[in-house]
Amino acid sequence: MNAELIAMAERLTTSLSTLLEHHNLARNCFIVDAMNEAAAMLLKMAEQKPVSHVQPTIKDPDGILRFKENAIVRHLYDWARERGHGLNELACMPFSNEDRQQFAQLLGYSLSGYSELPYVGDDV
What we know:
The chain is mainly α.
């Protein structure tokens, strides 16, 4: 998908150059500005990392939407937490935001709680 976005931005830039050369559009024309902005947005979108993993969601007995917990991950986390290695300790370790997001999903975080985590972006 990133290659497609880059190709679209290149086609848009080429079209913009053609318009400027052959149709005497002023460089400050709103069409030129809009096309430049669209090309920049496409390139920015192409640079963003896609979300690589999203757990399915469920509704718990209290009616709260949450990610479906992975029983193995929960077991390992509970075992580690009982030995002093909980979420606070993990927060001090050098894991990527993507890994932290996936871990929270696998633990069965509620969707509302997940969206408030500091390592979860606004685009999620």
